Structures are given as structure tokens and as C-alpha cells.
Amino acid sequence: MRQDTMSDIAGLIDTHAHLSMLLSRGISPEKRLEELFSGGFGGIIDIGTEAHDLADRVDAFSRFDRIRFAAGIWPYPEAIAGRRELAAVLEQQIRKAPPQLLAAVGECGLDRHWNKAEAGADIAGEGELLEAQLDLAKQYRLPVIIHSRDAAEETAEILSQYPEVRGVIHCFSYGAPQAKTFLDLGYYLSFAGTLTYKNAGPLREALRFVPDDRLLLETDSPFLAPIPYRGSPAEPGMVGETYRLAAALRGISQEKLKALAAKNTLDLFGLESLQSNIDS
Ligand SMILES: [Zn+2]
């Protein structure tokens, strides 16, 4: 049994979870969400990875009033190959979604760990898939949730071409110099359970470097469970471990960190409707 207490999870926000993937990892999302929200958990943004997955996720989870949704296309080789058709499908999903539930476009971005030029990946196509989603963010005035792995410079180069789009670099995986680059572009940085891993020195340095008004926290559930859960599937309640360490590294109380992360989530994603739930 879990030992959640009100003080542990109350007011925590997980800005990046893939709730529909929990079931395949042996976790019932409904049951866990009921436990979390009845304990005062602050909110979750449920993230899309495929062009057509938004409607099903809204059906499954919109009965929880502290969940909002993002819709985006992850840069899988198949998605890169089909980017024009899939961007059109994504736009349809965005148009049809209840506006008060749709928080962002994403996740979208560049992954040069999986998509390597030397292995024949379509690098130009990957960039175009990202640009198509930045175009949608601009058109529908939504923030973006950016995935960037082993591609800091290339990501920054593309984002710099969209100065009117705001967003977050999710599961930030770089060091302080790259943090500065993305902060200078106006982006928020979101830290995941990787912050708790042994080799996270540069990441921790980046965390200390981020100003109070640009910091977000997340799990990326079901991936990247924080220590001491590493090796198990992650679920949103585990974000508390990341808050605990982040507060210690920044030399502030967990309560202060909860308050500033909640404010930043509301500021970036424009979730006034979530605010009243967090206050209550
Ligand atoms: Zn993700």
C-alpha cells in the first residue's frame, strides 16, 4: 500500500504524464488518479505522442477536473515519414477538442539519440515535423511542449524562428549553458525524475540556474521513475521525489516550490480553470 499523506502530495503538479500508457505497465490510471486527487494532488497535463490520440485520452480522463491535455506528434520514423498527413490529422483533433481542456501542442521535437543522421534518419523531415507543430501552436495560440534529446543546438535554432510561440523544454536533459540558451528564447524548463539519478551533476547545476518564474516539474510517466522507484513504471504521484530534491538543491521549502511551480504552470498554460481547483 502507498503511504500518501495530504502533506506529501497536496498541491503537487505533474506537467507531463502519459496516463494512457500506465495500464500497459500494470497501473490502473483511474484508481491511482482517484487516490491522488482525493489527497489534494494539484494537477496533471496528459501528453500526446500520436496525431490521433487526443480524443481517446479526453474520453478516458476528462472526468477528473484537474487534468488538462496536450496534443502532439513524437518524432518516430513513421511520423516523420507521414508528417504532412499527420499534421493535418493533429490539426483536426485540436479543432475538435474542448478548448478549456486543451493546454498545449506537444510533445514534439527532435530526438538525435534515436534519429541519427549517420544511421540514415530523415533529419530534415524531423525538423519539418516540429515546424508543422510550431505552426499549429502559433495559429491556435497554444504553448508547445518540446522534446529535445541530444539536439540542443538544433532545437534552439528551430525554436528561435518562432519568437511568438511560448513553451517548455520538457524532461530537460542538458546543462546550465543550454539552459541559458532556452531561457533566453523565453522557454520554461521542466525537470523530471532524471534529476534524482546519480550522474545528474550537470542537470542539477541547470536546475539551480533556472529563475523561479521559469521552473516546472514532471514525471514523464510511465518513463524515468525517480529514485527510489527507478526500474518501476513511473506514475504522477512520484513527482513528489523530484520536488523534494529540487527544493533542497534550490535551498527553498517544498511548500514554496509547490507554490511557484503551480503559478508557472498556470502562467504558461493559461489554466485559470485549474487555479480554482488548486485553491479549493
Ligand atoms: Zn513524454
Which molecules other than protein and nucleic acid are bound?
Answer: zinc ion
Percent range for β-strand residues: 5-15%
Low-confidence segments, ≥5 residues, pLDDT <50? none
Read across the widest sheet, the strand sequence of neighbours is 1-2-3-4-5-6-7-8
The CATH topology is TIM Barrel
Evaluate the radius of gyration: 17 Å
H/E series: HEHEHEHHEHEHEHEHEHHH
Class inferred from helices and paired strands: alpha/beta
CATH superfamily: Metal-dependent hydrolases
Q: What is the second-level CATH architecture? A: Alpha-Beta Barrel
Percent helix: 40-55%
How is the topology of this model organized?
Blueprint: H1 6-9, E1 13-17, H2 29-38, E2 43-46, H3 54-61, E3 67-71, H4 77-81, H5 83-96, E4 102-111, H6 123-139, E5 144-149, H7 152-159, E6 167-169, H8 176-184, E7 188-191, H9 201-209, E8 215-217, H10 239-250, H11 254-269, H12 272-279
Parallel strand pairs: 1-2, 2-3, 3-4, 4-5, 5-6, 6-7, 7-8
Helix pairs in contact: 5-6, 8-9, 10-11
The protein binds zinc ion.
Zinc ion (ZN) binds next to loops.
In short:
With 280 residues, this protein is an alpha/beta fold. Helices cover 43% and strands 14% of the residues.
Describe this structure in words.
The chain is of the alpha/beta class and 280 residues long. The chain has a single domain, classed as Metal-dependent hydrolases (TIM Barrel). Helices cover 43% and strands 14% of the residues. It has twelve helices and eight strands. It has an eight-stranded parallel sheet with strand order 1-2-3-4-5-6-7-8. α6 links the parallel β4 and β5. α8 runs parallel beside α9. The chain is globular, with a radius of gyration of 17 Å. The protein starts with 5 loop residues before the first helix and ends with a helix. The mean pLDDT is 93. The structure holds zinc ion.
